[in-house]
Amino acid sequence: MDIVLGLRIKGGVLVATSKAATRGISVIKVGDDKTRELNPNTLMAYTGEAGDTVQFAEYIMANTRLYGIRHDVELSPSAVASFTRNQLAKALRSRKPYQVNVIIAGFDPKTEKPTLNLIDYLASNVELPYAAHGYAAYYTMSLLDRHWKEDMTQEEGVELMRMCIKELQTRLPVDFKGVYVKCVDKDGIRDISALCYPDEYPEAEVTEEMEAQQGEIAA
Hints:
This protein is an alpha+beta fold. The protein has helices at 50-71, 77-92, 136-147, 154-171, 193-196, 208-218, and strands spanning 4-9, 12-18, 21-23, 26-29, 35-39, 42-48, 100-108, 113-119, 125-127, 130-133, 179-185, 188-191. The strands form 3 sheets. The chain has a 5-stranded antiparallel beta sheet with strand order 10-1-2-11-12.
């Protein structure tokens, strides 16, 4: 019942993942971060079998960072997506395929464009303006199709993400313990959960940097 959402905005990408880690009818963890920072401008969000997800995500993260160290240049988000898709395709033809679905969100400093790639466990890779994995797709794709538009501001993107999460909270029969929301843009990767849902976070956790970002969004 994991939730993974991605949304491209002007100059960046927003990614939301559910906090709950579940197995059967039990909640194992209420603060599970289902993302990995592959390099300074690329983020992976994942869902699938518990063991496969973390192992595969950390494998991709380690190899992406190793490439940057060896060649002194970071892979672009599109290159990371191609590498990820290739690894899933190889595993699919082995005796132990990964049961993992991922979203690759990134910002390419060379082209100065954000990208969002949806990759499933069958190694299908497609670049989209918005994406969702799991049961979240059943309830949010119509909202994203209706309200997403080219060159959305961060404020508009956050509001659309709130609409999607509210719909999931209404329709899904399980409590996914809220979401983490992250933004990937030219400044890197940052957690904007406290800006999206200030009521869920203690006042002490909202830093001066977050307040400054909120001021920029309002402006």
